[in-house]
Design goal:
With 271 residues, this protein is an alpha/beta fold. It has eleven helices and eleven strands. The chain has two domains: 32-116, Translation Initiation Factor IF3; 122-254, Rossmann fold (3-Layer(aba) Sandwich), CATH 3.40.50. The protein has helices at residues 3-15, 20-29, 45-49, 62-74, 86-95, 133-145, 162-165, 168-171, 187-192, 215-222, 237-270, and strands at residues 32-35, 39-42, 55-56, 79-82, 100-102, 107-110, 122-127, 149-153, 176-181, 199-203, 229-231. Helix 4 runs parallel beside helix 5 and helix 6 (133-145) runs parallel beside helix 11. The longest helix has 34 residues, at 237-270. The protein is globular.
Length: 271
């Protein structure tokens, strides 16, 4: 939706041809832009869902990803790309020198003009082993993209539980914890019994034959006896980080609103 379309819509509301509710619905659902015959970029996903469209890089060419990013930038939106292969990353880094490529997490991020706002909410990402770091990094970058403060605790799995217990202070005050684990996937249940917030379990495909490419970890997480644990798909670091970001950001916004309300009350009382 460009400025002309918006102006015509507002004039229609003023003249009574459409209702304000209808205008809001149009603004929420219509805007998108087709590019190159291969993509229809959703430009109002942030309005509807709280976060802009993210590009799943797997299966897309470097040219396709570049064109989608240019559409997002044209409309003053940042861009996050996941599952970025090294050759695609090389192309994107040349096309967008200001971008940030995370080789371990296979992400590429371009900041938008409003991406440096205040940090809202605290997310802690925990990995069972070092081999789980690629998935954990995808989760971390995603949560940071949604303006959350993110702490990473690596290699604190159940094979050496004292490592996690030594870092309990880092879990304190978290709005949500993302636990990334392969093998038997036991760590989320342990973490769930130590914190008072949601725990998002992300199974990884790390493990020997009987782990069935992460299926064993996923089933273990789905059957967790800790009631605050929920699970996402295998190797879905983006999904874990995204949901964590939504939860933490909402909690952070609520805290900020409460602080403002208290401050306003103190000002009135002081006056």
């Amino acid at each position: 939706m460009d400025s002309d379309e918006l102006r015509h819509m507002l004039e229609a509301v003023r003249s009574g041809r459409i209702t304000p509710a209808d205008a809001v619905q149009k603004i929420r659902t219509l805007p998108f832009e087709e590019t190159g015959g291969f993509a229809t970029v959703d430009l109002h996903r942030g309005l509807r869902c709280g976060s802009p469209e993210v590009i799943f890089g797997q299966g897309k060419t470097a040219h396709q990803i570049e064109e989608i990013l240019r559409v997002l930038l044209k409309h003053r939106q940042g861009g996050l790309v996941t599952r970025v292969e090294p050759d695609v990353a090389e192309h994107l880094t040349k096309a967008f020198p200001e971008g940030d490529y995370n080789a371990l997490g296979r992400t590429f991020r371009l900041k938008g003009p409003e991406d440096d706002g205040p940090l809202l909410g605290k997310v802690v990402v925990v990995t069972a082993g070092t081999s789980d770091l690629p998935v954990a990094e995808e989760a971390r970058v995603t949560a940071e993209t949604w303006n959350c403060k993110v702490t990473l605790l690596a290699d604190v799995g159940v094979a050496g539980l004292h490592r996690l217990l030594h870092r309990l202070d880092a879990l304190g005050g978290a709005d949500v914890v993302v636990v990334v684990a392969g093998m038997e996937g036991a760590l989320p249940s342990v973490v769930g019994g130590l914190v008072d917030c949601p725990v998002i379990a992300v199974p990884t495909s790390i493990g020997y034959g009987a782990s069935f490419g992460g299926l064993a970890a996923l089933l273990g997480m789905l059957n967790s006896c800790s009631s605050n644990v929920v699970a996402v798909n295998i190797d879905a670091g983006f999904k874990g980080g995204h949901v964590a970001g939504l939860i933490a950001r909402r909690a952070g916004q609520a805290r900020r609103a409460a602080e403002v309300k208290i401050a306003e009350g103190e000002t009135r009382d002081g006056a």
